[in-house]
Q: What sequence folds into this?
């Protein structure tokens, strides 16, 4: 996770849109969350489960497409991705997920920040800008 954070932070700082104190804030956040992060593994996650990867059939079955990133990890990462792309759906997803612990309440914005920066970088490189500003704004809003 530290490697992902360093990569995301470097991208954000190079974009020229990162708040000046972002490195210190994220370092403190990571130091605080790291013991919790180390225990949050072992669930099967999509990692890139954007809403368009879920298909609903005429018989109300849910089908998944583009599961190339399927891996072990923390299910909250999938909630962060879905909430980032469809924020109005997040409250319902969290209700179905069950009550969040205090640590999970802190971890979800951290994951959202990481996924927002990854999405901004991907959009910038793959789509020549795309929704880059939307995702950078989402990253700043998720900044602990």
A:
């Amino acid at each position: 996770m530290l490697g992902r954070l360093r990569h995301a932070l470097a991208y954000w700082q190079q974009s020229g849109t990162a708040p000046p104190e972002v490195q210190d804030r994220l370092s403190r956040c990571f130091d605080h969350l790291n013991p919790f992060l180390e225990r949050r593994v072992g669930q099967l996650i999509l990692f890139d489960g954007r809403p368009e990867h879920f298909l609903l059939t005429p018989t109300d079955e849910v089908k998944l497409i583009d599961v190339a990133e399927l891996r072990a990890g923390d299910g909250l990462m999938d909630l962060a991705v879905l909430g980032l792309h469809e924020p109005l759906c997040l409250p319902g997803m969290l209700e179905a997920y069950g009550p969040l612990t205090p640590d999970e309440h802190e971890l979800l914005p951290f994951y959202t920040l990481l996924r927002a920066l990854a999405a901004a970088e991907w959009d910038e490189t793959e789509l020549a800008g795309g929704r880059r500003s939307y995702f950078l704004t989402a990253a700043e809003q998720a900044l602990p």
